[in-house]
Please model this.
Amino acid sequence: MIARLFSFHGGIKPDSHKNESSSLPIAAAPLPPRLTIPLRQSVRSVARCLVAPGQRVLKGERIGAGEGPLGTDVHASTSGTVVGLAPCAMAHASGLNTLAVIIEPDGKDEWIERRAFDHHAVPREAALRYLSTCGIVGMGGAGFPTHIKLGNGRGIETLIINGAECEPWITCDDRLMRERAAEILSGAAILHELIGARRTLVGIEDNKPEAIRAMREAATGFPGLVDIVAIPTRYPAGGEKQLIRVLTGIEIAHGKLGTEFGVQCFNVGTAQAVHRAIHHGEPLVSRVVTLTGNVRHPGNYEVLVGTPVETLLALAAPKPDTDRYLMGGPMMGITIADLSVPIGKTSNCIIAASPALFPPPPPELPCIRCGACARACPADLQPFELYWFSRAKNVGKAQEYHLFDCIECGSCAFVCPSHIPLVDYFRFSKSEIWARERELKTSDQARERFEFRNYRQEREKEEKAAKLAAKAAETRAKLTGSAAPTDAATGDDPKKALIAAALARAKQQAAAIEPRNTDTPHAGVPGASPGIASRREQPDLHDSDATS
Amino acid sequence: MIHSPYIRKPASVQSVMLAVLLALLPGVTAYVMQVAAVVVVNLLIATVTALVAEALILTLRKRPIAPALSDLSAVVTAWLVVLCFPPILPWWVTVLGVLIAIVAVKHLYGGLGQNPFNPAMVAYCAMIVAFPSLMSQWPPAGQIDFQTQLDLVLGGARQLDAITGATALDAMRTGLRTSGASVESVLQQSGTFGAVGGRGWEWLALGYLAGGLFMLARRIITWHMPVAFIATLAVVSGIFWLAEPAHFAPPLFHLASGGAMLAAFFIVTDPVSGATTPRGKLIFAAGIAVIAYLIRVFGAFPEGIAFAVLLMNLCVPLIDMKTQPAVFGHRGSRP
Ligand code: SF4
Ligand code: SF4
Model:
């Protein structure tokens, strides 16, 4: 057993609202009339389409081939006919569009031939490749490909299975742990082996006693494999870095990966998907989704990837005063702009929102520097300072105060008595910085191009001069009767040297420009001098919008 | 569009300020029962002045009035002004003090949250410099009836020396300056002293302490400032007292006298003008305690907290900057 838990700074305790849906067993959602399966399933790569309209596909059949090292394959989530390829909106804050395969189910839900995969019989790399062909990505957060997170099989001491589920309302992982604990642990065992871990810990918030009990019971079937650890309920205990901190005491810095510290974290859903893939030969085509909020029938459903949110919503019967829908939890989730977005591998919860459940925030008041936000921040930031700098558009200073360590968990905005939408300010500042960086990059490229053109022109001029000189020399030689055989070659040499010099200079300049979007302020950022004083000097900042 | 988080704690500036006002009630009750019931009248005058001043200046600045008035921050400022002023001041001194706090300190710097100085302390310093004799009239506990107090406040005749006494700090200070006097002899001479501090005023100290504990429990303030202030005042006065017990009053006397407890929980902890980082709060409050002690014992005024607060307010930007806590993950791993 684990001797002790660690704690992270800050955190909050919002009302959990888990009771609405936690007692409802996972039910299979009915086949929707249409499935929209985006070819972008793991955030960083788009799969190459393998099917054409009119083609019949089986459940689990590959319809997209993952490209690049971060690519994972995409599969049909039921049997049916491909009826089209079309751009579709993704459930992403950016409202990005991506190409999707539209499938009309035939109602048979007919699987491809499924065969267990013996990961012991093949080299480790082959097992990882197999997981990527099964489309296994992280189901808790950003959907990062699992085969990448498994690393090189060395250096990971601790494997962590994340069953914390700290966001209010969401109960899909809770149900999964209660009902499919053995599958999760079987997946954990596979991950444990593939990652080369020495120990495996499962962290579950202690407001899910049934899940903890079920997992502990199941763990007896895997002697010595895992420790099921009940952790204190405090948002955002399920944040990867917070969970790692609580379970191991290790603090993963911003921009660093768990692997560098010998820990790696997977969601319980991912572990279960790994089990299904290895032992049943099933690619990842469905996931558990919680439907809750302002609905008559909340519940947890096994939903096919690609099911449009609107068809799913019918199951829950939203009440008439529902004014919008959230995907994810109320702390970090997004408002769904378009209800035709499909459920993806990371869509854990749909919440119907009403003004009564999620009232609009009261008007923003000036910051009274009460420090409540700093006390709540799990990243130990001083949100009111970041707010000040963001407001003043002093993004350099905001960066210096570790803006990029903000995980946008929303704890600060949750507690602020002045109702300042702090996270919005931080998102704004981050996007400002990214925009500037992009600008810098483009202008650098433009300058490089310009400089190279200058060099080329210069070079051409010199070449011309050299040619002329050579000709003159030739004529002279003809006249004097003695040829100069080396001249032809020298005409080439200065040219090459010039190009080399130009390229070297351009490279040097590129290297001199430091990346700005880093965790620590680089040397170019002016020292932490009169910064805070600036907040005193701008009394009229509030004129602009405090009145709204 | 509204972005995450979609839920908020039902906290508001108003609820924070209301909690502060509630926390002041035990102290105010002790004030009324032990020292001068007229303080209630002063609180009323100050509250009305603060709200009217706030409304007027917001109109001038073309800002919405209702949210600012209902956030109760002006009322808190007004009450703190009253509680650190002598209770039998003519009403217009109170009004003037509140106006300085609200108009000059709060609004001329940009309104709520923008003032670098503690409004009540600026008001106190301004008035003690402008009206030194009025500002040093403290009534001896339980010796003036309410009618007389009211007359004094609302413009009755002034019978200064007959009715005002010295505060415990003042008595101790002047007492010790007469040759041959020791702390012991001073304490025995005068009826100004109670068990540990000023007679009657000790109860106020207890009342403020109770209110402070309430705010700590409600997480309105953190422990850093009160603890650092009280501990530093105790340690510094303790050192002098241990070195020369005859000439320096004991720590408990310093803590129970003057505005020490009011300051520890309600003045030093003003979030707007104080330091904000955990370590910064400790430094800020400790600095105030040291300066206040030095002024009390060696300076020109019997009470030094107001000047100490303003001096430390000046240092806040520097303190905050130098005490930024390490950010998650920047401390190196500590397995
Ligand atoms: S919680 Fe809000 S009011 Fe308090 S310091 Fe933070 S931003 Fe300012
Ligand atoms: S959103 Fe960022 S600043 Fe706010 S509490 Fe979370 S990590 Fe801290």
